[in-house]
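dumping this here before i forget
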Amino acid sequence: MIMEKIKKYLRKKADIKSIDMNEIKQYSKILSSKLITQDIDLIIGLKTGGYIPSILISKKLNKPLKFINIGRDKKRFFGIEVEKNIFLNNIYMQLFRKSQKPNIRSFNDDGIEGKRILLIDDDALSGLTLELAKDFLIKKGAKTVITACLIIYDDSYQSDFYAYKTKRSKILFFSFNKMKFPWAKTSKYYNNYLKEFNKYEVSYQNNKLERNYYDLDYTLSNTNSTFDFIFGYLKLNKKVRYYYNQFLKKVLSLFFFIPFRIRRKILINSQFKGLKKIDLLDYYNSTYKNLFLNNLTKLGNKILKKNNSKSILLTGCTEIPATEISKIFKFKKVISTTFNYKNGKILSIKDDTYGNLKLNFVKKEKDIKYRYYNDDSFSEDKLKNVMDEIIIVK
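structure:
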């Protein structure tokens, strides 16, 4: 009875407030609005405190998400597990927190190198956990790491960004955090948090960032953007070479026992070698671009109206005209067959992306779903090892 009265008095004196899940959403929204102008490639949430805030913020900012698990040994004070008592927990942290260094328990560091990372936690006192994670990510090759917390206190570690800043309550020589998160075992909302946790876990799994890849020929357009393009150019500008390559194409078709990829490479080198890049670009702009647009498939017309800033054109077609076509759709990137050049003239194929060779140019990243639209389920069958979903366009 006396202990209950003491606890009640201390709670009132410390002015401690339990935060519910609705307030967590509100703080996450405020923090997202402050981060929207930042250059961020990847969000990393610190478990447990940064788990739900990072899911909410990654959705708002539409950024891929990972988690890092950092912990300390279980805190005990004269044999008592202090997490279960808010006052002992606060006293313990101020007396022993800095001497009890955190350690990284688990993290998948794939796809970290060169990334601009946002590191999220619920709050920070000493900042040891955030600084440990930050140093670790920099050593793993991250380009930059910025820190963000839902709440910070005026006398504690100052993260780069925060949603709300407040003072801590003081009783005698000790300071107490005013805010108690719903995932704290002493929170009155803890049971509600446990019930909602699975919902957020499912939400995270179902809302991984999607990356769409699109093939070109007979997927976005009914033209062949290698052979229709080059034969059109040769017929208009170099008739002798045009007829020679038509003959070569028929001869190569007789050698069916030679893999098509090799026959294709021989024909492309014969067609393109010695041609000036600037002349091919002129032909694309004056003639082929309209031919391509007039022959868009249903999917091509649909994609033309979409925001494709996250999508990639993945094609075996040659870089001219593939690179120019990608600009029509405003794709983030184009992966295509490229050439070696000398003095503006084509020498030979540099990187071939025909069929399964595309596999060499697709780098799998965690926390991203890969969807590939194409018309070929045979020569590109190995791409199923990378793509989460392959949609064959009829």
